[in-house]
Amino acid sequence: MYHTNISGGAFTKELIEVVRIIIEEELITTVFQPIVSLSDGKVFAYEALSRIVDKELEINIETMFKIADAMRRSWELETLCRTKALNNAARKPKEAKLFLNVNANIIYDEKFIGGFTTKRLLEYKFDPSDIAFEITERTMPSRPDAFLTAINHYKEQNYAIAIDDVGSGFSGLNLIVEANPNFLKMDMSLVRDIDKDNIKISLCRALVDFCRNTKINLIAEGIETEEELRTLIKIGVNYGQGFFLGIPKRSFEDIDPEKAKTIAATQSKYYVENVTNSVQPRIGFLSKKGYTCMPDERALTLFEMVKANPAVTEICILNENKPVGFITKSDLFSAFGGIYGHSISRRKHISELMRSDFLKVDQSINIDDVSRIAMQRPYERLYNPIVVEKDNKYFGVVTVKDLLDARTKIQIEIAKHSNPLTGLPGNLLIEGEIFRRIFDTKPYCITYYDIDNFKAYNDAYGFVNGDLMLKLLSDILRTCSAKNEFIGHIGGDDFVVIADYHDGEEYCKKVIETFSQRIFSLYNEEDVKNGFIVSKNRHGVTENFPIASLSVAGVTNRRKAYKNLEDFSLDAARIKKICKIQKGNHLHIE
Fold first, then answer.
1. Contact 514, 480 (CB under 8 A)
2. Can you give the pLDDT at residue 467?
3. What distances in angstroms separate CA 209 from CA 213, 237, 277, 475, one per listed residue?
4. Which of 16, 94, 108, 360 could be cross-linked to 150 through a Cys-Cys bond (beta carbons 3.0 to 4.6 Å apart)?
5. pLDDT digits (tens, 9 = 90+) for 207-229
6. Which alpha helices (H) appear in 377-482, and where do they start and end?
């Protein structure tokens, strides 16, 4: 067999001829693989993948591109693949993005830029917001300045940028930092068997944290098993792609409904039972199995076990898996201490030594409430662990140390993500709270508060007085709270209140009534007398604006259970719009 060497790469003449024929006879077609939201199981985008039409000319796709590059025909091949992809993607679902693979050394080429003008895209019935350019991390740009200039150009035009193969390249961090992409795609080598590899899990967690902090969406490639999928959802990865979710096909197909259900059920499990990004996580998240025994266990047997195992500091006594008693290591040692303690206690069962007045709570109670209850115990039992139940069955125990550590962490998180003016939780914490309710089955009422004519007041009275109005509303929302409602400050004059019950009207009416009474203190006498202020509208035209009022829009799950954040957000936006077109105070809850 003959070989030839082009630009340092050795390829057979037969392979080179195959690539030449593919390019010149345009023997390329496109298949599309779904990229799925791991929040609700819906298809978010499709990646366009090139395939060779003639089976007799079958060649590894990556090898084909390497040979084309060695032949200095990369531009021809990539143009062919992109053209086929755009032509075949004309029937793409409107709401889904299209991911196009692009060589890092071509994206800044003037011919490439010219091919992706808005005018050219309209020929394919696309808009720039429909397209994401996927750049492989393995191919570093030879002209970094030109590459970054092109990236910024595309982002300004509303294209999305994705960096592929993260975790397999050699200079990936530099590329990510400089390009500031919209998406990162984890290399499949990190995804493979991630459910069995703690190192991969730790690395994936680090990527999730990085992407969350930089507002980049993370996509896991190469998902092939349900166990991998569940692990990625638990860690918090945004999107997934792989044969388990959908194989590449010429048609745009949704994923199997059962797999969509698996995603929704898994997401629900990790956001309801083990909520970690809630402002107040449930105590069940902190609980550990602990050591348990039956009431008829010999006290001496347990005493000897505890002596041999210093890590065992408490024992929960269960009868048919229900907690009936509790004993600490110190209580056990005390019972066996003294001159006669060992002789008396060695004959007893643990039921005769255990405490029946221990603290037990349901796993659904939030950490802050448990802390308050625990700190009200008598001094001698103040530092005893708390027994956690689920459905009146033993679930685990939580030590006071773990409880206090968690509360400290919560306070730090709240401070870090709170609005600096009002001190209320900000967007990240609000989103977590809303997300948790949506995937739960318990009652909730989520209400949004918007101050009408706030901008006009802010312009006329100044920012200092505008801040006073925002503080006034935040104080009223707190004061009216009676059932541990979550209160958040979205930003500007927008606030949210999340209640764990359906009937939010009473709270909302109380807020509106209090606001209506106290708002006049922020206006001068003349404006109060007139009932309006003179200010400029958004177009710079002077007009009269009424005294500030509240538009309150609410959504509950009384009659409609939401399956994803998108449907919830659409309903919330619709109800807000209804409220804003009304004059004066207005309340609308569906």
1. yes
2. 94
3. 6, 10, 12, 33
4. 108
5. 888 888 788 899 999 999 999 99
6. 400-416, 427-438, 454-461, 463-480
Task: Give residue-wise pLDDT tens across range 394-405.
Answer: 999 998 888 888
Nearest of 295, 298, 315 to residue 306 by alpha carbon: 315
Return the SS3 of 28: strand
Phi-psi group of 194: left, alpha or beta (phi > 0 → left; psi -120 to 50 → alpha; rest → beta): alpha
The token pair that represents 61 in the structure block: 């796709």
Radius of gyration of the chain (CA): 31
- Which domains does the chain carry? 29-59+73-272 (3.20.20.450), 283-406 (3.10.580.10), 418-589 (3.30.70.270)
For residue 187, give the nearest of 210, 160, 207 by alpha carbon.
207
Q: What is the DSSP string of 457-476?
A: HHHHH-HHHHHHHHHHHHHH
Calculate the CA 86 to chain-centre distance: 31
What span, in angstroms and rounded, lies between the C-alpha atoms of 390 and 395? 6
Which tokens sit at 483? 């059932």
| Diameter of the chain measured on Cα atoms | 99
Low-confidence ranges of the chain (pLDDT < 50): 1-8, 170-171, 272-277
Cβ-contact 279, 432 below 8 angstroms: yes
Residue in this structure with the two tokens 């990369």, named with its chain if needed:
74
Phi-psi region of 180 (alpha: psi -120 to 50; beta: other; left: phi over 0): left
